[in-house]
Specification:
Length: about 110
């Protein structure tokens, strides 16, 4: 299991993936995000990947709007015909659809 994780003001999260031999195979991904501040903002997490050639794909955001101290987890998958050569995570705090702050980590 490989994990990318980071923390920013008000949020922490991670993406966990298995090791695999073919970068074009479907990749199981576990995303999690925790709201770490009683500030009235919600938090989000998304999977990131770099494909052959280094281009970055940003997958859809997953939201936790349940408040301070709560964690949400999603089991999902990712696949790219260009291959997934590096895996990452972006964790952020939002006000509505406006991104307030974020962090990223790569594995």
């Amino acid at each position: 299991m490989a994990t990318a994780s980071c923390s920013t003001a008000g949020a922490s999260g991670s993406s966990k993936t298995v090791k695999y031999s073919n970068p074009r195979d479907e990749l199981p991904v576990t995303l999690s995000v925790k709201d770490t501040s009683a500030d009235g903002h919600h938090v989000r997490v998304r999977f990131l990947n770099k494909s052959d050639g280094g281009s970055i794909r940003k997958w859809k955001w997953r939201s936790n709007k349940d408040g301070n101290g709560t964690t949400k987890v999603w089991e999902t998958s990712a696949q790219s015909s260009y291959g997934i050569y590096e895996k990452g995570v972006e964790v952020a705090r939002f006000e509505g659809d406006r991104l307030l702050n974020s962090c990223t980590d790569w594995i």
